[in-house]
Amino acid sequence: MRATRCLVLAALAALVACASESSCPAEKPSGDCDTADLRCNYSDEQGCPHAYVCRVYSSYRTAWTEYKPPPGLPCTSPGQVCEYSLENDTPHTAVSQDYAFECGPSGTWKGKSLCPEQQPTAGSPCEYELLLCGYDCPGGTGQRIARCELEVSYYTWTIDEFSCAKAGG
Q1: Could you identify which of 29, 76, 88, 156 might form a hypothetical disulfide with 151, taking C-beta atoms 3.0 to 4.6 angstroms apart as the criterion?
Q2: Residue 13 — very low, low, confident or very high, per pLDDT cuts 50/70/90?
Q3: Is the pLDDT of residue 6 over 70?
Q4: Do 85 and 23 share a structural domain?
């Protein structure tokens, strides 16, 4: 896999030098890396896309981090769905991010909703912590929000109807 890296050099005038390099490792990377902000795309054994960035954690350490791959990468099995759950580590919080991609008829990956097609029932089980799904209110007067939340040791749906207009009011 080839990657393109652009270096911006500041001297008397701004000079942009772009070089095509094969800086991405042949296999999915982990651990320390050398080139800050280098982004590399891979496919796993099932053909699902994965993206990694060489992230700067401090002035003396860089490491590979998996992040959400961009839509539009090529795929070979239309209809195939890939689901992901990544930890989004920041200095202030660690949040799990769930998402999915579907291989479209054009041969590229596109985003796919993890929300149930029909509004779930409050208290019914769900899989993806912090997933928010919107559903039309009766009469088309706003949206209900379904939230997947941890309830003791399992996840359930909570339904917020605050944005639905009240009948007769």
Answers
A1: 156
A2: very low
A3: no
A4: yes
* Strand spans (E) along 59-138: 61-67, 81-89, 94-103, 109-112, 132-136
**Any residues with CB less than 8 A from the CB of 144 and at least 6 apart, and which?**
119, 134, 135, 136, 137, 159, 160, 161, 163, 164
The domain in which residue 21 lies consists of 3-112
Residue written as token pair 């390099």: 21
Mean pLDDT, residues 146-160 = 90
Contact status, residue 129 vs residue 98, Cβ threshold 8 Å: yes
Compute the distance between CA of residue 117 and CA of residue 160 in angstroms, rounded to an integer: 17
Bridge partners, residue 66, by sequence: 52
DSSP per-residue letters across 87-98: EEE-SS-EEEEE
Q: Report pLDDT for 165.
A: 67
Q: In terms of domains, do 165 and 87 share one?
A: no
